[in-house]
Write a structure and sequence with these properties.
The protein is an alpha/beta fold. The chain is about 40% helix and about 20% strand. Helix 1 crosses helix 8 (about 240-254). It is globular.
Length: about 250
């Protein structure tokens, strides 16, 4: 089953109270709270407050979207990030698979990221929390091949993966990439971009209906629970988010 949500950093300019109100208005299910501004890494008091806001609105905390760089111990020791996630009551912590693209990473760097992945997964598991790699450029999950290599090398039961369509990739390649990571798939970051000559133009989600319907159908085939979370909207406007939320709910209902 796939439910709906929002990645809070879509609206860095809004307060947690405003984001909760907006997501409730949109009729979505959950929020991934970002660790850079809305629930800062290590701020346990803020995390408890945001958890309460979320729950009182009838919403779910989907994940703690941390900016922890695996293999580098940044921006804080991972134990502090776990403490924050526990206070937020987040079942999942999103992390970044290093800060080096797979094409530039040597064997020593791979070993560094794999070792830290296993250590932080053990730490998270003690709190009943899983971790998930951001599926992103300039990390070791920047291609399907490298993402699979990392997931298979770590092979930890508490290590999972997000998925999002890489910029500029074809629909066929995206479907193949998503298929490959399905055994580890947790949530999806959902957005609509037009990539031209190195630039990215944000579109309304409905403009990528053909692609996203296929991606969501593929993800649903796991039979597990996932959350499709809107990340970034046209012109950063709440009214466009409400349009995108309506679109996403229609897709999921189908």
């Amino acid at each position: 089953m796939i439910r709906s949500g929002l990645v809070s950093i879509t609206f860095r300019q809004l307060s947690p109270e405003e984001i909760v109100s907006l997501v409730a208005q949109a009729g979505l299910d959950a929020i991934e709270w970002g660790g850079d501004i809305h629930v800062p890494h290590g701020d346990v008091t803020r995390a408890r407050t945001v958890r309460q806001l979320t729950v009182e609105a009838g919403l779910e905390v989907a994940a703690y979207g941390s900016y922890y760089r695996v293999g580098h111990g940044e921006p804080l020791p991972f134990g502090r990030i776990v403490e924050t996630a526990v206070a937020l009551d987040a079942p999942l912590i999103r992390v970044w698979a290093g800060k080096c693209g797979s094409a530039q990473a040597d064997d020593a760097y791979w070993a560094q990221v794999v070792e830290d992945s296993y250590q932080i997964a053990d730490l998270a598991a003690q709190a009943g929390i899983r971790i998930a790699y951001e599926y992103h450029a300039n990390t070791l999950t920047d291609t399907t091949t490298s993402a699979l290599k990392l997931l298979q090398a770590v092979a930890h039961p508490h290590v999972t993966s997000y998925w999002q369509p890489p910029a500029g990739a074809s629909v066929a390649d995206n479907l193949a990439g998503l298929e490959a990571v399905l055994p580890w798939l947790t949530h999806l970051h959902v957005f609509s971009w037009r990539v031209m000559e190195g630039t990215r133009e944000r579109l309304l989600l409905a403009e990528k209906a053909i692609e996203w319907r296929q991606y969501l159908q593929k993800a649903a085939a796991t039979g597990r629970n996932h959350i499709a979370m809107i990340e970034f909207v046209k012109d950063d406007m709440p009214e466009n988010f409400l349009k995108d939320a309506s679109t996403l709910k229609q897709w999921l209902a189908q």
